[in-house]
Design goal:
By secondary structure, the protein is of the alpha+beta class. The chain has two domains: 4-81, Orthogonal Bundle (Arc Repressor Mutant, subunit A), CATH 1.10.10.10; 87-254, 2-Layer Sandwich (Beta-Lactamase), CATH 3.30.450.40. It is 45% helix and 17% strand. It contains ten helices and eight strands. It has helices at 4-11, 15-28, 36-43, 47-59, 77-82, 87-106, 148-155, 159-168, 180-193, 240-254, and strands at 63-65, 72-74, 110-116, 119-126, 141-142, 196-199, 207-214, 220-228. It has a six-stranded antiparallel sheet with strand order 5-4-3-8-7-6, sandwiched between helices. Strands 1-2 form a two-stranded antiparallel sheet. The radius of gyration is 23 Å and the shape is elongated. The relative contact order is 0.10.
Length: 258
């Protein structure tokens, strides 16, 4: 039985807008562009409706037409719009409120990392609201190959991109090397589970839980990590299973749906 939420995408359909977005997404995959006939064939629509939409996209500079007039390609307007506010700034601005809410509910700290020149960089962090917690400073470089965040970042990449990241990796102080065979098995396990959970390889008494923030293709844009510290006094707070569930919901909410 359909719910109101299930029906919402169809109820609020805008066919003309969908058509324009379909054209933009199609051209984004074609660096040399496509002819109008090729676009019509790929989209399964009539010549007339595609012609009208292409003309409007060209007029608004989202699509360019070749001098010969027979080939269409993605213009630079989307690039310009995207960079009016840098992507990283947008990611952090969107993530910070969700991370604040997680820290309050979980009574734990958390931090967000992105890939940066062969390792990871902390771009956002929230301290535990309680007296006890482990926080990582903003801007700190985090190892790609022997940390929870690094395992998740590598696990959720294409094989080619993972190889590129490992080739760019620079050894950081304290790094524990991992043989290639062991790394491949570990990353496969992370992909299967959908996250990393295990004892910190840097600090005693800490259980790291890391979740990917995914793009529409299932690749990690960033990684959200909670260095979980278990209280042993009489305070009763969220346990590791609760925190894992909270972190998963937070990461899922920040991921970009396909």
């Amino acid at each position: 039985m359909s719910t109101e939420n299930d029906a919402a995408p169809d109820r609020y359909r805008a066919p003309a807008l969908d058509k324009g977005l379909d054209i933009l997404e199609l051209l984004a995959e074609q660096p040399l562009g496509l002819t109008r006939a090729e676009i019509v064939k790929a989209m399964g629509r009539s010549q007339s409706e595609i012609y009208r939409m292409l003309e409007r996209l060209v007029a608004r500079h989202y699509v360019t037409r070749s001098p010969e007039g027979d080939r269409y390609a993605l213009g630079l307007k989307l690039f310009v719009l995207a960079h009016r506010h840098p992507p990283l700034d947008r990611l952090v601005a969107r993530a910070q409120p969700a991370m604040d809410a997680f820290a309050k509910a979980a009574e734990q700290s958390c931090h967000l990392v992105v890939y940066d020149r062969g390792n990871l960089t902390v771009v956002a962090q929230v301290a535990s609201p309680n007296n006890w917690g482990l926080s990582i400073r903003l801007g700190v470089r985090v190892n790609l190959v022997d940390t929870a965040s690094g395992h998740v970042m590598l696990a959720f990449q294409s094989e080619e991109r993972c190889s590129e990241m490992l080739a760019e990796h620079e050894v950081l102080e304290g790094e524990v090397p991992l043989p290639a065979g062991e790394r491949a098995a570990l990353l496969a396990q992370v992909r299967s589970r959908g996250h990393w959970e295990g004892e910190s390889q840097q600090v005693f008494g800490v259980s790291d839980v890391s979740m990917p923030l995914l793009d529409p293709y299932g690749h990690a844009l960033a990684v959200l990590t909670c260095p979980f510290i278990r209280r042993i006094d009489r305070h009763v707070g969220p346990d590791l299973a609760d925190v894992r569930a909270l972190l998963a919901r937070t990461a899922q909410g920040l991921s970009i749906g396909g």
